[in-house]
Design brief:
Radius of gyration: 24 Å
Helix content: 40-55%
Strand content: 5-15%
Structural class: alpha/beta
Largest sheet: 5 strands, parallel
Strand order of the largest sheet: 2-1-3-4-5
Distance between the termini: 24 Å
Length: 226
């Protein structure tokens, strides 16, 4: 596996099925790697891999659902498409609740699986782009010095220049310079734009951010869990 290249990982203990799935997906022009067992796939999977996994539900000791669970526990969030010739409604619901991207019945239609795989690849590209944006935004926040962080917190709370001058104990020109530095470091054209971006960032980070008090606009000083 090449971690930085999108790859379709096909996991099926039936070699004929693996060959058939690979043939169906070949027109997508994306590299395909086949694995005869869940153990083999998991031993080589890595959180940095890009692509999607097409996994048969009924494998050997480690079935498709267990492959999905272990990938997630290992921090590998590639979309997983589960295939089975005997889905029940309950099993399909359980798979989706566990985080499967889609569940499909075998044998798959010639156009259905490629379409779902394309959707999965697009989904991961978007998710990766959002993750990179969050990481970049976090790094920009960390680049602010303590005075700039306090000024930004005051600006987000609606404080005007006079209030910021009083709180920081600086002159108007200094506040103007601080505001300019904040915008430059955060790569924003205005504080309206920056506030909207920060709101989006905070919403995405609510489950992982520490020290953020409910109802307050707090600018973290360090320690972002992405």
């Amino acid at each position: 596996m090449a971690p930085n290249d999108p790859t379709i990982f096909v996991v099926d203990d039936d070699p004929l099925a693996r060959h058939s799935l690979a043939a169906i997906l070949a027109p997508l022009g994306v590299p395909i790697e086949g694995f005869p067992s869940g153990e083999d796939f998991l031993s080589r999977a890595h959180p940095s891999h890009i692509g999607c996994a097409v996994v048969d539900l009924c494998l050997g000791e480690i079935d498709g659902m267990e492959v999905l669970r272990r990938l997630r526990r290992a921090g590998c969030d590639i979309p997983v498409i589960l295939l089975s010739g005997c889905w029940s409604v309950r099993a399909a619901v359980d798979a989706m609740e566990q985080g499967a991207f889609r569940v499909l019945e075998k044998p798959c239609c010639a156009d259905e699986l490629p379409r779902v795989v394309q959707d999965a690849l697009r989904y991961q590209r978007t998710a990766l782009a959002r993750k990179r944006w969050r990481m970049d935004f976090a790094h920009r926040l960390e680049s602010l010095d303590p005075r700039e962080r306090l000024a930004l917190e005051l600006i987000f709370s609606g404080a005007g220049n006079k209030a910021i001058e009083h709180r920081l104990g600086v002159a108007t020109r200094t506040v103007d310079r601080i505001r300019s530095c904040i915008l430059r470091k955060m790569n924003a054209l205005s504080f309206i734009e920056l506030a909207a971006a920060y709101g989006e960032y905070r919403g995405a980070m609510d489950n992982g951010a520490q020290g953020m008090e409910a109802g307050q606009c707090h600018v973290p000083c360090q320690g972002f869990e992405l």
